[in-house]
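Now read the record:
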Amino acid sequence: MKQEFSKIYKLESQIYELQNNILKEFIKKAENKAILGFLKELSDNQNDTLNFTGLLSEINELKLYELKIGSKVPKDFDDIFIYHFNTDYDEDGFCKLFFEINDDNIIEDIQYEAE
């Protein structure tokens, strides 16, 4: 049983490193300050590898890091992205990214908030 746990810890470490590399690439590509702040906050609070992979996949699929004011988005684009995490003090934390989108599906404003 000890070997199995050792393998799990090794895999988690590898996943964490891969996620971190992907996130660094997103940060390099981000031009909007709010999106950049959101991505950096994610980097600082990357701790749930399974859920984090899904979030990174969604960010990649939507090319969230490329969005800026004036970008056109699909009609079904969510205007808020939230990542929930636990802090070192066992408190809940959130990173939130808000998009203000007009009737023509153009981004008019992007806000970032961390709690």
Notes: The first helix runs from residue 2 to 29. The mean pLDDT is 90. The radius of gyration is 16 Å.
